[in-house]
Amino acid sequence: MKQTVSQTLKSSDTEEFIDIYFYRRIGYWVARASAAVGITPNAITIVSIFWGILAGHLMMYEDIWINLLGVLSLIIANTLDSADGQLARMTNNKTRLGRILDGLAGNIWFVSIYIHLGLRMQNEGMGSWIWLLGAFTGLCHVFQAAIADYYRNGHLFFIKGEGGSEFDNSQSMQKLSKSLSWKKEFFYKLFMSSYVNYTREQELFTRHMGLLITKVRDAYPSGVPLWLSTGFGTDNKPLMKYTNILSFNTRAIALFVAVLSGIPIGYWIFEFTVLNIVLIYMVWQQEKISMRYINLVDNNIATTDGNEE
Fold this sequence. Notes:
- The protein has helices at about 15-35, 40-60, 65-90, 95-125, 130-160, 170-180, 185-205, 205-220, 225-235, 240-245, 250-260, 265-270, 275-309.
- It has about 300 residues and is mainly α.
- It folds into 2 domains: about 1-95, CDP-alcohol phosphotransferase transmembrane (TM) domain (Four Helix Bundle (Hemerythrin (Met), subunit A)); about 130-165 and about 205-309, no CATH class.
């Protein structure tokens, strides 16, 4: 249990400055305290959901002091979101259900935020068209976060192997979902069905990353070889800043500025313009790197087979 903060992180490659020096440090002590009294990672995740829902509600009002409480509530929610993962790594209590619940929690926060921002803008006199804009922006948000998560876990697969990554594909998740019983494992099967759809969304624009990892798993069943781990990790690391931009901190800062300045629609505009541009660029660059390493893996396999002959 006497682990340092850095030992509870997934990887320094995928952590942002704000995470390392704020959320992870506070989350570490929350995780330590939770472990001492027997609180589980999933319990922390569930508590974070209520803080996130509250944050959305408090951002609905045209009162800066209430809005500040909303900002604080979302910061608490994200701190707990950090703590649940750190606790899971501290106690070696990592489960797929926990990962699914963790992703679901973040989505619930922002569903609450989007609905309450829509209500606020409608109360300010905007027409019903605001809900169409909100739905479109929310859809953009879902794809941005899902694809960023996919690429981040792909990166972790190469630098830390299967054990240090949470990289899943829709086919294997579909098989797992079908093996579960609605009668005996209702909630787990329900979550898994949702997760299958989530992984399919991720794979819509990430074909070459998925193909690369499939090839690597088939060609190197004992683990990612050092030349590939080092090469891909070095070449791909610069793209991790884009996965971070599309995760929590950047959009949270934009949200806080928009809400506290009294221009909540500014957050939605930022979401579907700036963040979509980042998404397109990230996918373009990431798929280029993946295609290059597909060729390198194919060449390595061909060379190895030739030497064996």
